[in-house]
Each structure stands twice: as C-alpha cells, then as structure tokens.
Design a protein that fits this description.
Helix 1 runs parallel beside helix 4. The protein contains 4 helices and no strands. It has one domain. It is mainly alpha-helical. The protein is 80% helix and 0% strand.
Length: 85
C-alpha cells in the first residue's frame, strides 16, 4: 500500500487538492513523513529500514515530478482549447 504513493498523489492533483508547488514547498515535511512510515514498517534491523526508506523517498520525488508533468499537460491542453477559434 505504501508504494501506491504516486497514484494517490496523481489522484489528489487531478481533483485539485494538491499541486506540485505545494509538494515542492513541503518537501522536508514529506521526507519526514515518509521516514516515519518506513520506521513503522516491520524490519528487523536499521539496514532493512534504510533499504525500505530509499525507494520510498524515490517514489515521493517521482510523485512530485508526476504532479508537475500532469499540471503542465493540463495547462497546455487548456491553452490549446482557448486558442482555437
């Protein structure tokens, strides 16, 4: 369920609850939340927790970029609609 983060973020960006600017602005808080979630996952040692944490951080960063590209595609589409006669 944790690795569904990009899908959840994409849904929130699509309905307008989140934006890529908000995600970038609160990046430090996002890293902290992801670290807390990784610590909550079952892992026998700190190495395993670290190995769980790294892909989760990568997914969080990927979610930010995904939000950026979705917003850009949406704005490009709205510009295209407005500019057609």
């Amino acid at each position: 369920m944790v690795f569904e983060l990009p899908v959840i973020v994409l849904g929130l960006v699509s309905i307008g609850v989140l934006s890529s600017a908000t995600l970038r602005k609160n990046r430090r808080l996002g890293y902290f939340v992801v670290a807390v979630v990784a610590l909550g996952l079952p892992g026998p040692d700190p190495v395993t927790t670290g190995l769980e944490l790294l892909p989760m951080w990568a997914l969080f960063e990927g979610s930010i970029w995904l939000a950026f590209f979705v917003e850009r595609a949406r704005s490009d589409a709205s510009i295209e609609i407005v500019s057609t006669p």
